[in-house]
Design brief:
236 residues, 6-stranded antiparallel β-sheet, 4 helices, 25% strand, signal, ARB_07466-like_C, ARB-07466-like C-terminal domain-containing protein
């Protein structure tokens, strides 16, 4: 387990696909599962945490489990202590964490792409965010093997994926803080738009607001495509 940075998950409700993250009772990290699955695992649900899903899919949290007296269920990538499986609702990555503290990051500084195919605005933006949030970004991706303009700003080297969990396809609630920071520093970054956790914010369309009120996106089918393991930032 990597050294984790302590932080606070703020209370929220979030659009999410089944078995993907949400924010539940008292702002705890949760998972979108059926009410019956939550109950059988000893969790509690709140309404409105998973509005994209069927009526019986709700945000499930479990505040107490048996991995020390501080044990609580959260995504393994966000645990500041050791994690134990088979005590929590949801997929295998939702585990009983031994720490009451929320742990994010603790990663070595990522490598930055060279300016070229990855444009200067993106490289500068990547360096600015990483400097503001040391230890929180594990890896950076800029370009994609596609012709510009293509269907993504990655095709033109004007987008960065900030991977902020322990690995690709591993969910984290860490990205909310990074995404809101990007919004608040939109002018400095020359921001086009930012995506995290199946929500998008665009300075040309949206007012400054908490991530919980950002515009929802469609369910694209997995953790990475729904942006639960990284923050996508597109630049002008």
């Amino acid at each position: 387990m990597q050294l984790k940075v302590l932080t606070l998950i703020m209370a929220a409700t979030a659009m999410a696909a089944t078995n993907e993250p949400c924010f539940g009772a008292d702002g705890r990290a949760g998972v979108c599962v059926s009410t019956s699955a939550c109950s059988s695992a000893g969790g509690i649900t709140i309404a409105g945490g998973c509005p994209a899903d069927a009526a019986d899919i709700k945000c499930c949290t479990k505040a107490s489990c048996s991995n020390t007296s501080a044990g609580n269920c959260r995504w393994q990538s966000d645990c500041a202590g050791s994690s134990v499986a088979n005590q929590c609702p949801g997929p295998a990555q939702m585990k009983c964490c031994s720490s009451a503290a929320t742990g994010f990051g603790g990663y070595a500084a990522p490598a930055f792409p060279a300016v070229g195919a990855c444009k200067a605005v993106a490289v500068t933006g990547a360096k600015t965010l990483v400097a503001a949030w040391p230890g929180r970004v594990r890896q950076i991706y800029c370009t994609r093997d596609c012709a510009c303009p293509g269907t993504s700003d990655h095709c033109c080297g004007k987008a960065i994926d900030f991977m902020c969990s322990d690995g690709g396809g591993i969910p984290t609630t860490s990205g909310r803080q990074l995404a809101e920071w990007v919004m608040n520093n939109r002018a400095t970054l020359n921001l086009k738009y930012v995506i995290y956790g199946q929500k998008i914010w665009n300075p040309s369309q949206d007012s400054v607001k908490a991530w919980t009120s950002w515009r929802p996106m469609e369910d694209r089918g997995d953790v990475t495509q729904n942006h639960w393991d990284h923050v996508h930032v597109s630049f002008n």
